[in-house]
Design brief:
492 residues; alpha+beta; Lipocalin; Beta-lactamase; 3 domains; 9-stranded antiparallel sheet; 9-stranded mixed sheet; 13 helices; 23 strands
């Protein structure tokens, strides 16, 4: 062992001597090789992720990713909100020399220049046109890669393999399965690796409930079971459940009651075609209103704006997907129950399902929470709602919503602009491939927020995601590709 160490020491000294000789005798070596070595050292110090603050919102941060590939430098920008991926932005003209780094952000019209201080931070700032220099310190944070670019830690490595983990017990049920059937295994081990590989965009969670038990619960891109997630237009399906609860409790009388009976301060609802409007039309997206969605959600009073929109069609005749219909339903609930929708939901829906964590404050106006898509829930809460619908309104021995309303509200009512049909704020679609196809009740939220309820398979599948920049509905294709695997009662 000592002889080997002596040989290594002698070899190192010889290499050092050769290096010094070249440095002293060859000017080209000094001018070409030495700067190249030093610059590579500098580049290595800057590769990775650099974190900076949002100028106004503490919940948001930006990250600059510096990558060195095949003797070229590249950079990409990311925004996060509350520690999770929000969006990307372009970064140009990255330059690194010594301890200096500079880059340009076209979307901001700003150039950053900074100097490396130690190994963990860069001191510098932005120059944006004629604006004053804005000092901004960047801090190294390579751990953020498992939120921004990797679905799971290490999943980019060639030897990575998905491993199933039994879900943790759920507060308030349902039960958790400790073993997988053959069908469960085939489905999960086929689909989960593709989700992790990014085949369906940015999927943040994937849960599967089968035959009375939660058999799969997986999270990605830094999310965990406690994290609230926007459910987007799945909020509309919650609105449908609340209308059913108000009917069950006698606070609403009839879906065919004219809309003007709830809004006496809007006399135009008694003129022209407006008297034909009723709750059934709102629920089935056949109100006839001009949707005007952008203007609606930019208005200072959504309810007033929604009610005053012109009618394009006779109510009940034409399907138009319209968030304003959902906003009006929220106002109907308040008029009928004396409570805003979130308060009514807490008492009649969330508490019976043991859902104690949610956020419905975003886009609130005059006390009204937005019914079109502002509710935030955990994926576990979404699963409980799906299970309750699967069980015809029952959950853990309680009848939460009447079976009559579950059946009526999830039955297809109208053809749509897609292959799917629409019920009362629920979609109906087919999953699978010929010859094995399965009818599903579907809560459909932009970006990958989905509750799939498949009665034939006694199954509920829940996903959340951030596919706003990608194919929002891509995961449906993956589920359809493998769902036939669940159609088995075999045991391992």
């Amino acid at each position: 062992m000592k002889r080997i160490k002596d040989i290594l020491k002698i070899s190192a000294l010889l290499l050092l001597g050769i290096f010094v000789l070249l440095f002293l005798t060859l000017p080209g070596f000094r001018t070409l090789v030495i700067p190249e070595i030093l610059n590579r050292y500098a580049v290595n110090n800057f590769t990775g992720f650099w974190e900076g603050p949002h100028p106004e919102e503490k919940a948001k941060k930006f990250y600059i990713q510096v990558v060195s590939e095949q003797d070229s430098l590249q950079a990409k920008g990311f925004w996060t909100e509350r520690g999770f991926y929000l969006s990307e932005f372009g970064v140009d003209s990255l330059h690194i020399e010594g301890r200096m780094m500079s880059f340009f952000v076209p979307g901001w019209g700003c150039r950053y220049e900074g100097i490396l201080k130690g190994n963990g931070w860069v001191q510098g700032g932005f120059s944006c046109g004629e604006e004053a220099f804005d000092p901004v310190t960047l801090a190294k944070n390579d751990q953020i890669q498992d939120v921004l670019i990797h679905a799971r830690p290490g999943c980019q490595l060639p030897d990575y393999a998905y491993r199933y983990r039994v879900p943790d017990p759920l507060h308030g049920g349902p039960e958790v399965s400790g073993r997988l059937s053959v069908g469960d295994s085939l489905f999960i081990y086929a689909l989960l690796p593709e989700i992790i590989a990014g085949d369906y965009g940015r999927i943040n969670s994937f849960l599967v409930y089968r035959h009375g038990q939660l058999v799969c619960e997986e999270y990605f891109f830094g999310y965990a079971k406690e994290d609230l997630h926007p459910i987007e237009s799945c909020t509309k399906s919650i609105a449908s459940l609340l209308i059913g609860l108000a009917l069950d409790q006698g606070m609403l009388k009839d879906l065919d009651d004219p809309l003007y009976t709830y809004f006496p301060d809007y006399p135009h609802l008694k003129a022209g075609l407006y008297p034909k409007l009723n709750l059934r039309n709102l629920l089935s997206m056949t109100s006839g209103f001009d949707p005007m969605n952008d203007a609606l959600f930019a208005s200072d009073d959504r309810i007033d704006f929604a009610l005053k929109r012109p009618l394009l069609d006779t109510p009940g005749e034409v399907f138009r997907y319209d968030g304003g219909n959902s906003e009006i339903l929220g106002a109907v609930l308040q008029a009928a129950t004396g409570e805003f929708a979130d308060s009514f939901a807490r008492r009649t829906l969330f508490q019976p399902l043991d859902i104690d964590r949610y956020d419905w404050d975003r886009f609130r106006q005059q006390g009204f929470p937005s019914m079109g898509g502002s509710l935030h829930l955990t994926p576990r809460a979404m699963t409980k709602i799906g299970v309750m619908v699967l069980q015809n309104g029952g959950y853990q021995g309680k009848q939460v919503v009447s079976g009559q309303w579950i059946g009526e509200s999830t039955t297809p009512r109208t053809e749509t602009h897609t292959e799917e049909r629409y019920a009362y704020h629920w979609w109906n679609l087919e999953l699978g491939q010929d010859p094995q196809r399965y009818q599903a009740i579907w809560a459909n939220g932009w970006g990958g927020q989905f509750i799939y309820i498949i009665p034939q398979l006694e199954t509920v599948i829940v996903t959340t995601g951030h596919n706003y920049e990608l194919d929002s509905w891509a995961i449906t294709q993956g589920i359809s590709k493998y769902i036939h695997s669940l159609d088995t009662d075999q045991n391992p």
